Amino acid sequence: MKNRSLRKLFIFNTIKIVIMTLISIVISILLWVLWVNIYPRDYYERIHYENIKKEVEKNKDLIRRNEEIKIKQEDSKFIYAIYYKNKLIKNSKGYGIKSHKELEKIGTSNSFVDKNIKYKVEILDNEIKIIAIYPAFSTGNMYVDKFNSIAQNLLLITPVFWFTVFLVYYTSRLYREISSNFYEVTSYLKYIEKGIFDKNLREFKEEEFQELANRINLMKDKLKILLDKQVEKIEVQNNLFSSVAHDIKTPLTIISAETEMIMLSECQNINIQSRSNIILSEISRIDNLLTELLTISKLNLHNYSSTIEPINIQDVIFYQLKEFQSLIEKKNAQVKFLYSNENYYVNGDNMMLNRVLQNIISNALEHIDVSGELQIDLKSYDNKISLQIANTGSQFPDDYLRQEFIPFYSKKNERDKNHFGLGLYMSNIMLKKMNSELFIENKENKACVTIFFRGENNPENKR
């Protein structure tokens, strides 16, 4: 059914449930009627009583002469008594009845209310009376009777049973269909989250889902146009920035060279030497800043690629600590490297990973207090590796914690003035390229940087 609405589909299913329930009830009743015709429940009325009546009519003369008659039909459930002029001629016993008087008493008593037992009195030729008591509803087979009793009770709940069956069946089908549509929509949205825009969401039979699909496809097309324009704009800006940065580096190199020449020519002038050192220091700062900005611009390029491979993170940390040994000694810092496993492997780009840890450890050592503590904690759990680097001393500003690595210039009283706020921003970009996560916080009077890597089995164990 094309372009059907969920409302119409619900009404259609409701009608089907009602129709199928009615059909099932009719079929159940027809089967019950067929069963009753095959096994009629008037067995004692039709067989036993009629046989008794025939025997009496056949032996009327014997009865009138008060002679004994023989009845072939005997059944403990069928009780009868034959009278001639109110005199008992013959009787049977059953149902706990001991005499014909008790039988008569049952027949005339107002307390006889058992609907399953039939009491019958018939008079022939105004002289001969037949009194009989027997099961009112029976096939003569106790197993069939038991089945009939159960089937009759089940027949009473047939409408509820079939209604429940078809309600569960059709609502389950409707639920599966709606769930399947929702699953396709959510799966398609995940593709959009990943930046895959090469195909549209499929067409749906239901009007509501088709309207949703049309809006999602329209949103996807507009989002693709915006992203393409944004990527193009970023690439133009990055290329422009790279060109400007390279152009700035050329005069900086010249200024630096000329300043060094002045220092050589005026080596006896202490004032000129001091000012020249300041110029060279500031040139170095500008050069470092431009280098970081150029790196960030390259990382932001859409076509930037990296080589991902298993890397022993402990080796990288030990290497970086060795590189910063002089700075550690200068600050008289205590370094604690905590780990429980000898081999922690992560998936990443070796050059990027070294740059990230260099930025974070350098940043921590620059802002650690004298005789402070640098703690590195390496843990592994749930196929992830956690690396936390914490330092005592100045902590992260509250406004920066809320800004999620937006580049900033530090406040003088909070972080060192040489810190431009680009290190963590650049590290965050690099880690995202390696499918890892970076978090910062102030914890226990320490500035903490935590990285979550995706774990990798030790390649040596695979051999």
UniProtKB/TrEMBL annotation:
Residues 202-229 form a coiled coil. The keyword Phosphoprotein applies. Its main location: membrane. Gene3D superfamilies: 1.10.287.130, Histidine kinase-like ATPase, C-terminal domain. Residues 243-457 form the Histidine kinase domain. Keywords: ATP-binding, Cell membrane, Coiled coil, Kinase, Membrane, Nucleotide-binding, Phosphoprotein, Transferase, Transmembrane, Transmembrane helix, Two-component regulatory system. GO terms for molecular function: kinase activity. This is histidine kinase. Its EC number is 2.7.13.3. It is found in: Cell membrane.
